[in-house]
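## Example pair
The file below holds two records. Each record gives the amino-acid sequence first, followed by its structure token line.
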Amino acid sequence: MITHIWTVLCSRAVIDRDSNNCSLQNVIEQLNIKKKPEPEAMLVIAFDVVTLWSRTNPGVPGRGRERLTFLSPSGTELGSFEISIDLSNTKRFRSQVRFEGLPVREPGLYSFRVDLQNDSETEWYQVAAIPLEITFELPEPTSPSF
């Protein structure tokens, strides 16, 4: 069996080659957009979603799948990725998904839902929901001067 430890959104995750330690830079909790996005356009922003998994029982290997789903404030699924989790030879597994843009249409509380499917099961289980607040900071309209 597999246990979800944490999931973090950050501008960049750096993995040290020697120690395999991960440095999470600029954790992202909110984005302030200076203009309203065009319909069907992507908000251009680069960031990582990093998740750490471990064996539920350290002595028992496991395999499964992670599903990362981006949800709008109304709960509409805007995109999804699946990643294989292999804990057959290691006690921990870290996934790192790099995004170059997001389909943002409205301000509000978006989220990344993290689901797990253990290898011997058909069901998916939600293990986390990571919030991302997106605001539109539109310029104030100016009144004409006479």
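Second record, same layout:
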Amino acid sequence: MFFAFVIIAGMLLIGVLVFARLAARGQFVMPSRSPVWIILSAILFVLAGCGSGSVTTPPPMTPISTSDTGATTPTSASGTTQSDWTMYHNDNARTGYIENFSDPKQLSRLWDKTLDGAVYAEPLVVGGHVLIATEQNTIYSFDAQTGQEQWHTNVGTPVPRAALPCGNIDPSGITGTPIYDPATKELFAVAEISGPSHILVGLDVSNGQVKLRRQIDVAGMDPSAHQERAALALNQGTVYIAFGGRYGDCGNYHGMVIGSKTNGQGQLLVYQVPTPREGGIWSPPGPAIDANGHLYVAVGNGEVTSGTWDHTDSVLRLSPTLQLEDGFAPTQWAQDNAADADLGSMSPVLLPNGQVFSVGKSGRGYLLHANALGGVGGQIQEQQVCPSYGGYATVGSQIFLPCRNGIRQVKIEGNSITMGWQHDQPNGSPVVGGHTVYCMDYAGGTLYALNSDDGSVRTSLSIGTTSRFATPTLWNGLVFVGTMQGVVALKVA
């Protein structure tokens, strides 16, 4: 092969020289028997010979990364690759599932950091760095493997509990999980700052520089009564931010979703639940977004307890521009409102077969059609499951629920809701890696790793006190959990 290419190169050189000489004489037309034609014919003959026989062309090299995130794709403990963990539970559907992740025989502490405040938001991983937001309104970037700090940025003074009419977080800073945008390479977060007011910030993840700062309290909104606990969502250049009330339901608050362009330009998009008061959209996963950009949110109890449905105790579908498209409520929505037994405590579950599953404080589970949610009482199926609070995880049509009395597996089979296993110790918001469910016993400060097939304990490790809705992050054979003191990194072995 080498000698053939040497011959070709020589012939090409001769051809160029001959053609140049002919061109100098004004002879641009090549007759069929011209010297150049003879040379080119010989070259084609050699090329044909090089293309035959048993010689094979080697496959092209695999690029290091074809994504536009600016981050490398690391190799996981199982030898496969895994992308960054850029939002709550890893994707717009909030599945919290990674297929290629080693099942642990044990968990060991790799590193931990004491930070300036409690961590309620889920840790994120971008470009090999863990991004942590605290209630002191500080965002940190640490090397995921070593724990070495890359940078930290404080975006404003948080609001002390004493300055608010009610609540159970002191102080209130960044509570909802931020989101990373690969298009702008910015991390977006909502911070509650003194005033009080709520601001959307965008930070350059390479150095922590604040690139965007925008107030998002809209006209008629009382910032002291509204809390941003839900995870941020992102689609097609718009960041979506959901609001509910504070613990204690004080003040005149309304559930709402606000949308802002990532560049901070243009008017804010707003959807407000049409109820006189309450109807918060507060569950930690925030809005789930389908492949067409439609948002699905769960709405809490409202003040109305009779008469016409006010779109509380519900699952609502919103357009990308935050127009109400469809909704569902249980037949007994008014009684649920009166008893604080609504669907607002857990975001809707988007299933792969065009269905939606919803369950909340009452424990009654509802299976819905995504394209026709059903209005009042229009569910496909309903069944008593368990009172659920926080974030779920899904593997296909299997759902792992954070129930009041432990983690529960639920299977959706056609139009049926089937109960699977239950483990009564951990009851935090789960994620799934490989065939293992990772979840906190937040009261006891212990992280559990359960076999996803039967709920048996693979291993567990005490990591310290966490918030009620703390949820793990999985990346490259490591597990990250935010605590009331900071963050812990664990190694799967």
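Notes on the second record: Residues 1-81 have pLDDT under 50 and may be disordered. DSSP finds three helices and 35 strands in the chain.
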